[in-house]
Amino acid sequence: MELLVESSIIENQKILSYEYGLPSYLQKDLDAYKKGLEENSSLLDCLWDELYGSINGAEIDDRAISSEHADYLKKSFYLMMIMNNSKFFCVFYILMPFLFQPLMALISLHM
After folding, report:
1. Residue 23 burial class via C-beta count within 10 angstroms: exposed 0-12, middle 13-18, buried 19 and up
2. Are 79 and 108 in contact (CB under 8 A)?
3. CA dist list (Å): 4 to 7, 11, 103
4. What are the pLDDT digits (tens) for 81-107?
């Protein structure tokens, strides 16, 4: 049980670290996207396109982030966009670290 808790803590820290220390252009687009989510912006699809392009640029062109890092950003924030209009969004966001791997497996099947 203790090993499971430690493993969960390490996974949560890894997930949180994926959202910091990014190239400035990617951080700017990520922050704009998060703000759009919070404000239920009508431009969320445009913000997603900007973020997706920045993730690809950071991964492929600049090699500033790994493929694993890029996949995390794409999958988790795309899922947030889908869940944004749901009543369960807040609960999901809180539980996301615990649900992350099974959900990402499901999303991978559909991307």
Report:
1. middle
2. no
3. 5, 10, 19
4. 766 655 445 555 555 555 566 666 666
- One DSSP character per residue, 78-105 reads HHHHHHTTSTTHHHHHHHHHHHHHHHHH
59: phi > 0 → left, psi -120 to 50 → alpha, else beta; which? alpha
67-83 and 44-56 helices, crossing angle to 10°: 170
Under 8 Å between Cβ of 96 and 11 = no
Please state the pTM of the whole predicted model: 0.63
Please report the pLDDT score of residue 85 as a whole number.
56
